């Protein structure tokens, strides 16, 4: 019927529509929605994720990054021994990168209208990774590798959880995840190198850390 705009192309029509894709909300609705709830800033009516849950997950990630920053910094100051210089430099670099991750997470939490939790009270409990000092250079690296592997698994899960519902959060998490994978790789290489240089590699943690049982 001429002038009949009610018939919308559907996925079952066969060939995909050439013009306006069916999944796009019409611009009039988007414009109207954008004027509502201006106080919510970047969170629009089209935001599909569970915002409260996403903020909660981001805050656990933030706690993890703060704990990792502190642990790496401690390791930087405590690294000693013949091979300590290059290892300490790596600890410091990682510490600074964990701090940058914390900043990215805090920024995303505020964009979503949440409050980044920097409260030292309960920090270790909120964090996925642990703060372990380690008694030797090798133990320090092992503990850092354990923490990175915990972060890798939890960030992968968070990215899967938000999926398509919050692409920005997913991208932030995936960006950090890629960096944690680099850290884990660095640490693994450092352990190997230290083993070759004869640094005492045997520790009660070795088997657990490297997934050998
Ligand atoms: Fe990190
Ligand atoms: Fe890391």
UniProtKB/TrEMBL annotation:
Residues 48-198 form the Ferritin-like diiron domain. The keyword Iron applies. Residues 1-20, 192-213 are annotated as: Disordered. This is Bacterioferritin. One of its GO terms (biological process) is intracellular iron ion homeostasis. GO terms for cellular component: cytosol. GO terms for molecular function: ferric iron binding; ferroxidase activity; heme binding. CDD domains: Ferritin_like.
């Amino acid at each position: 019927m001429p002038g009949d705009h009610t018939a919308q192309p559907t996925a079952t029509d066969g060939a995909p529509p050439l013009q306006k894709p069916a999944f796009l909300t019409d611009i009039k609705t988007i414009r109207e929605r954008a004027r509502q709830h201006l106080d919510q800033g970047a969170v629009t009516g089209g935001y599909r994720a569970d915002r409260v849950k996403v903020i909660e997950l981001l805050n656990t990630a933030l706690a993890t990054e703060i704990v990792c920053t502190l642990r790496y910094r401690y390791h930087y100051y405590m690294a000693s021994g013949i091979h300590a210089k290059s290892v300490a430099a790596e600890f410091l670099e990682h510490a600074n990168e964990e701090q940058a991750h914390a900043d990215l997470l805090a920024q995303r939490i505020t964009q979503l209208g949440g409050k980044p939790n920097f409260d030292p009270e309960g920090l270790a409990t909120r964090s996925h990774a642990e703060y372990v000092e380690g008694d030797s250079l090798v133990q320090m690296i092992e503990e850092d590798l354990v923490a990175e592997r915990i972060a890798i698994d939890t960030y992968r899960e968070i990215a899967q959880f938000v999926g398509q519902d919050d692409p920005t959060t997913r991208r932030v998490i995936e960006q950090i995840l890629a960096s944690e994978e680099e850290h884990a790789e660095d640490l693994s290489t450092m352990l190997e190198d230290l083993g070759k240089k004869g640094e005492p590699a045997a520790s009660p943690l070795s088997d657990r850390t490297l997934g050998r049982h």
